[in-house]
Specification:
Layout: E1 2-11, E2 14-24, E3 29-33, H1 40-48, E4 55-60, E5 63-64, H2 70-73, E6 75-78, H3 90-100, H4 105-118, H5 134-146, E7 152-156, H6 164-181, E8 185-189, H7 192-198, E9 201-206, E10 209-214, H8 216-221, H9 226-231, E11 236-243, E12 247-250, E13 253-256, E14 268-273, E15 279-280, E16 290-300, E17 305-311, E18 314-320, E19 329-333, E20 340-343
Parallel strand pairs: 3-8, 3-9, 6-7, 7-8
Antiparallel strand pairs: 1-2, 1-4, 4-5, 9-10, 11-12, 11-14, 12-13, 14-20, 15-19, 16-17, 16-19, 17-18
Helix pairs in contact: 3-4, 3-5, 4-5
The structure holds adenosine-5'-diphosphate and magnesium ion (MG).
Adenosine-5'-diphosphate (ADP) binds near residues 11, 36, 37 and 41.
């Protein structure tokens, strides 16, 4: 459906987008995730035709649409500050794009009613938008974007202005509405929790490229490199030096892995292991991947205790079934099969 090929954009001599390749297929909810300033909004604006690309092409159903005007593309855009017209009713706001298309009045009314039903706000049609809560306004903005029946919907940090509790409750509703509409959509966010909650497929934008794309589970299980693992908050990351076939040296000792590593001798790499895989006082010191540690503190998280540890100046996080008092000396063990070796 949508294909971006080799998209490039630079500002002040710096490449913001440096050959972006991205596809969105039919009915798919793609989440574009990246740090603030990574170029997500710029990529959306190029896709929408609001900004020109310096190189590369935009395709829709294999047709080159790079030189088409925004209104000729039939793509819907929804921004963070949703920019509803404050002195109009909900229905008038949703009707906006339909009027712009020059649809006859009865058709506009019918489509507005449909759009309001989709967002479960049919009874709000005659309310002023200023009387709505932030979450309701956000849903109206979504209805406004959906009403003209766009080929593709693009949402740029749509929940960014809302508080955390509201975001959590809205994200699932948004996912249901978008899936229900059957429209392909690009959902942009810098928030990884939001990304995991909404995406069929994730694409991570970093340093001008799509660094990795795939199902959320794939990125969670097999991040391509240390930067991505850190950005996604996947767990403990320690710098190491490879010692094939299956060990690596770190500042405080040596790690052994279950599988051989695919790296030359003495390559800089990063070890990733998840907090739940770090075992406290499970093995005597001297057993494989077992080190002396000091407990910094234990924080009750509901289903587990987050135990913050220090191993020779290095901070590690463990998830444990029990609390460990601050200051206690413990051993920590990381089973060899639970360690991933990532390129730096
Ligand atoms: P994101 O949406 O990921 O936060 P943006 O696409 O908004 O990133 O832009 C990233 C950076 O690109 C901005 O921090 C800014 O430095 C630069 N930029 C974007 N638009 C312009 C512009 N029109 N002129 C100059 N620099 C720009
Ligand atoms: Mg942005």
């Amino acid at each position: 459906m949508l294909s971006l090929r080799g998209i490039k954009k630079r500002y002040e001599g710096q490449w913001l987008l440096n050959g972006v390749e991205l596809d969105v297929s039919e009915g798919e909810l793609l989440c574009l995730l990246g740090e603030s300033g990574s170029g997500k909004s710029t990529l959306l604006r190029i896709t929408a035709g609001l900004e020109e690309t310096e190189a590369g092409r935009v395709f829709w159903n294999c047709q080159d649409i790079t030189d088409l005007q925004p209104n000729e593309r039939c793509f819907g855009l929804m921004f963070q500050d949703y920019a509803l017209f404050p002195h109009r009713t909900v229905a008038q706001n949703v009707a906006f794009g339909l009027r712009m298309k020059g649809l006859p009045r009865h058709e506009v009314e019918q489509k507005v009613t449909e759009a309001l039903k989709t967002i479960h706000m049919a009874s709000f049609a005659d309310r002023q938008v200023t009387e709505l809560s932030g979450g309701e306004q956000q849903r109206v903005a979504l209805a406004r974007a959906l009403a003209p029946d766009p080929h593709l919907l693009m949402l740029d940090e749509p929940l960014g202005a809302l508080d955390h509790t509201l975001r959590v409750s809205l994200i699932h509703e948004l996912r249901r509405i978008l899936h229900g509409s059957g429209k392909p959509a690009i959902y942009v966010t810098h928030d990884r929790e939001e990304a995991f909650a909404i995406a069929d497929r994730l694409a991570v934008l970093h340093e001008g490229h799509i660094m990795q794309t795939g199902a959320p589970e794939l990125l969670f299980k097999k991040p391509v490199n240390a930067w991505l693992a850190s950005f996604l908050g996947l767990g403990n990351l320690i710098k190491a030096m490879s010692a094939p076939p299956n060990t690596a040296a770190v500042t405080f000792g040596c790690f052994t892995f279950a599988e051989s590593i695919n790296l030359p001798e003495k390559s800089a790499c990063v070890l990733l292991f998840r907090p739940r895989d770090l075992l406290i006082n499970a093995q005597p010191l001297g057993a494989v991947n077992t080190f002396d540690a000091k407990v910094i503190d234990s924080v009750f998280m509901g289903d587990y205790w987050q135990v913050n540890l220090r191993v020779q100046g290095l901070d590690l996080e463990a998830h444990s079934g029990q609390s460990h008092p601050a200051g206690t000396s413990v051993t920590v063990t990381i089973p060899p099969e639970k360690i991933q070796v990532l390129p730096q």
